Predict the structure.
Amino acid sequence: MSARLLCRLLAAPGEARALDAAQWNAVIAIARAELLIGTLAFRLRGLPLPAPVEAILAAAILSAEEGRRQALWEAVMARRALAALDCPVILLKGTAFVAAGLDAGQGRHIGDLDILVPADMLARAEAALLDAGWEWVKSDPYDDAYYRRWMHELPPLIHRERDRMIDVHHTILPPTARSTPDPAKLIADAVPLADGVAMLSPEDVVIHAAIHLFADGDLSGGLRNLWDIDRLVREFAARDADYPARLVSRAAEHQASRAVARALRLAAALFDTPIPPQPAEPLFDAAARRRLLARDGWGRGTRPATRLAFYVRSHWLRMPPAMLARHLWIKMWRRSRHAG
Amino acid sequence: MRHVFSVRIGPVGFRVGSDWRAPVAALRTLYAGYPTPDDGIADYNVRLSATRPWRRFIRPSVAIAGDYMLPDAAPLPLAHGLLAAEMAMNLQLALGERRFLLLHAATVERGGEAIVLTGESGAGKSTLAALLAARGWRLMGDEFALVDPETGLVHAFPRLVSLKNAAIAVVRAALPAARFGPLMAGTPKGDIRHLVPDDTAVAAMQVPARAVRLVFPRFGFAAERRTVGAGEAFVRLTQASTNYVALGERGFAAMTRFVRETPAMALDYPDADAAIAAIEAEG
């Protein structure tokens, strides 16, 4: 068993009719582990399903609707806190999808609120949020200094009453990473939504998702990101036939061509996303597919070696070798001190 | 997983997987009279697995996991595997349940009318529920009352009743013919022994009931009864619910309806007999 069956159901919900009890148990466990149960519930809505599955998915829809409402409320809270800055609050990821009413937001799990502000506004944004009830999560001085010096976002803040986290980004990749997207372009082309918030342009939103998947992280939660990419590309391409071509040329402007090509190919492989021809990288794709689908029928992560390889790769991409060595050394030294 | 056990408790189906035979064998014995999940499809998956591959054999240590997990849940030794399974099953509901409003409470029923006993650990919920069952009440559950937001009815969740420390002997004396699980000594919660709910409780576990009385028992105080207003009951129940916030407006509507329709009392009691007499007088 792998997450392959979950992908099939998301891409082609009609295949749900053929599932037996053992397959349902596995798919539900895997969908929960990948935080895709709400998405699956929306995709299968209205199909004739076994009664227990229907009850589970109905609850997942209620849960996703409540999550959506809380995420939008959190965006309102952040916008109010930052009103004095007089710059648009650009929503990123899940909150942007639901605020814009995109397909990618249907049933999507939303954890933290992610926003983008211009780098020169960062200090003022931080002060305004602290003033409005957000607090630091990390008290460790090394982590704090690391974030401020090397990351593309402030150290995470949590609201002391609502217990919700906010990540304030000033760009979409760490400045130390191999490629450098242009934050000025991201901000200049952002699309206003209602109520003083905005989101990235249709091209940039997919580029951000692709970068997050293949130029930054270790692919944990990757299936969810890839599903976002499938939904976004389909919806934008349906609105405008030139979209795929514009996406490819915009990716080049952000030094993200490779990440975007990889994201499109894997979305096509797992979710049948219609995409223009992309340069092939069969070895990378096979490894990424193995990593993305690595779940057993109980929702447990499998393939530890592949996982480790992508974890190591994520650090390798994020910073130059000497810096990586220093960072890992400090992390290890601290861990051994904490354990002892 | 190597060993698998599936069961339905009230409206909730579980699939429990384990690296070891023992916890699953214990569940199979104690839940012998229970049905399997409808259509073989479980609402929640529970996993009892070794914290490290070698810990399956050497000083075996059971990690509590499943569809929903706490990042810092402490593992238990294999000797307490049954407790681990019960904790993991409870945790799935506590973190994952969205159909019902969960109240951390024991519930008993007679003539279609339910009494809901809620309070912190040590208040005596499980003990009082078991003793009331010994006096002919139907045991609906000792851990969670499941309130249906659509109907306001309480649904049963009659899992094994978890008795702790001195309560074990008290309930054994009151229910000499009942079945009990193994004594697990020295767990993080003290000595624990599970009572198997009687046949009536299992046979009627699909039948919901209307709550007619909400009781906040408190053990170890001089006997005293006090009427609790709807406002106070509301605040105390929001703290006794693991999913009130997650349910959003549905949770608020279900909770306000519950406290409006269910008269509540605080009951301090010095010993079980006094509490039983007071509850039966009210019910």
User: Anything to note?
Assistant: The two ends of chain B are 46 Å apart (CA to CA). Helices of chain B lie at 21-30, 81-96, 125-134, 166-174, 199-203, 230-239, 249-261, 272-282. The longest helix of chain B spans residues 81-96. Chain B touches chain A at residues 1, 13, 15, 17, 37-43, 45, 47, 49, 67-68, 96-99, 246-248, 250 (CB under 8 Å).
